[in-house]
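User: Can you write out an input/output pair for a complex, sequences first and structure second?

Assistant: Here is one pair. Inputs:
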Amino acid sequence: MPLTIYDLMKEKGSYLPGSAACPGCGATLAFRIASRVLGPNTVYVVPASCFSVIQSPFPKSAVGAPLYNIAFPAAAATASGVWRAFKTLNKEVNVVVWAGDGGTVDIGLQALSGAAERGENIIYVCYDNEAYMNTGIQRSGATPPYALTKTTPTGKREPSKDMPLIVAAHRVPYVATASVGYPFDLAKKFEKAKRIKGFKYIHIFSPCPPGWDYPVEKTAEIGKLAVDTYFWPLYEIENGKLKITLKPRRKPLKEFIRLQGRFRKMSDEEIAELEKMVVERWKFLEHLEKSERIF
Amino acid sequence: MGGTWEIITGNHAAAIAAKLARVKVVPAYPITPQTTIVEYIASFIESGQMDAEYIRVESEHSAMAAAIGASAAGVRAFTATASQGLLLMHEVVHWAAGSRLPIGMAVVNRAVGPPWNIHVDHQDSMSQRDTGWLQMYVSSNQEVLDTILMMFKVAESPEVLLPFMVCLDGFVLSHTYMPVNIPDQEEVDEFLPPYKPPHWSLDPENPITFGNLALPDEYQEMRWSMDMAMRRAHDVIERVVEEFRERFGRYHGGVVWEYKLEDADYVVIAMGTLASEAEVAVDELRDRGVRVGLLKVRSFRPFPHKEVLKALEDKRGAIVIDRSIAFSSGGPLGIEVKASIYNQLDLPIVNFITGLGGRDVTYQDVEQMVRESMDRILSDRVDRPYYWFKLKPEFEKAEIREGY
Amino acid sequence: MSSVEGDIIIPVSKPSPGSAGDTGLWRVFKPVVHEDRCIKCWLCWLYCPEEVISEGENGFPEINYSYCKGCGVCADVCPKDAIEMVPD
């Protein structure tokens, strides 16, 4: 069923305006859309992340659904406990981890892997702003090569972890990438995840104006350009079968790179190098798409 | 007394207690000497004797995190660990208490590494003493079972709402068979009704955000509130112990257990199975005319300052035996006992550190500690905050030469 | 519901708009909707990170200036340049 903007508009989201989020925050935009699809019958578990601050300080909260804040490494384990408790109470509730990239690909990876392997009936969401933003921009395992952070002052040298495929290798029923630049694609993936039993993983590209050093109004545009330049391909893996959900006509990577201060030290050669990697990765995904099952 | 008698290990008793308490979620991760607790629980659940969710987590950190999630969703949660597992949990052990979730945990005391050592001492649980958990130390398998049941009731009482750990000595209790009376399920159900979170839970009907940022303006009172609850737990433990005695006819002591204290000149203070050895030592010494008594500290958190002070009034000295070490400072129990009497009594306290990594401490050892202490007290030679006991002779010499 | 019951003080927070105060005060530029150019595609609503755009009584986008942080994403995504960022 095609999803329209009117469908989304009539749903009640769980984000309440006037939060402590930075202006133009990609994570907030992602949450606004996702929480509309997930609906109010949802419990969120949030590890240390920007989202711990976005909620605003005690005694108020910008989130209108039950939310439990937990220590950095533990979100997937805590969500497992929440889900199992609801199971004993015969309650059907969406249990959702809402984690940043540090809490997912680095410190939270072990608990995430455990929950995925056990097949816990939860949706694990990584909103990925590609660095430790809440602590003031330090590199994470999700930071792309060449990006400047406070701990990579001359640019990161290593490629980032391919987290969605790492999770998919656990043979979970659903893995998807999404971007705040394409909210309908994002919404559809949440709709799907909501209906599937077992462990679901959605990795959302979430631009960060202060962390990536771009003009604050460009959040949606950068979210789109990431996809359009193949920097952040949109795909889903359902029961091991990979499908690229959006195949745009590729734009030069430069359009995406040159909007962001974090890449300001990149030479044209380096951009060409990165573009090569990005295109190779796209081809790899196209190759995977041809398989009946990749895992 | 109803119930049935079985000859079981301390770990089996802990698992049966979790079953009788109708725990709903059990996250489990193996570690010696705890492992058989979660093995028994797995078999209870898979054989249909216990109706609970069993989460085979990938670490102890996740075990506690999952217990937190379950408890926050409003059900009774239980797990068990030891040593390194407890240390790995540490972050979320704090988190459970700060969340005011009455989670139950059996801690099978074991030394911490390196080097690897699977035998008993209390360094593991002592490293968690300031996390806001209630801590009970027990000395028999019956006490393991009974205390877990009692502590769920204490922890869940609305004026407490703190998690608890029942600490049992590795191997000495965990793997040793003793006769244990297993109460009837109906009796336990009447004693311990289902858990109902009194203030909040993760409920879509009533959305709240738990644990978001609290600024300096707000934070301190939350910790004060935990401290209030911990202090209040003292009376709640005494109340629940009495209720348990009435219903089940068994009593292991309240926050403390006293033995032959009344006319004693000297008081041995110990916890866990060391207290059982001390009990025998007291009898032996009394047979030879030494007036000595025993104060077994059951509740280390809340600490029974009042009871310690009362027990030491009119005495000539106290011998405190610790099975862990606060390096350069003393034994955690010794330190607390000194705090209890500070500014109240002028009483010599001889604090011993011994039994680390499973070194056997027998009743004869306790007798010797008492005699050495009496010598020191009578000749005014309590010259150090603590003394190591049962070091190998060559190290004993080095220890004395070095002073402190 | 209260986070304080007697002396049990629990870090439980209540959902409320304006949880970080009147975040409209953060604004440097203010989005102004030119209804004559608006085609009601609602992309501004879709992409607004702050949930401050809704359908006004006249059927056009209405901005909640109490909380709008003035990021300008709405103006950036508007296909008809119907939202203008003006100094606030």
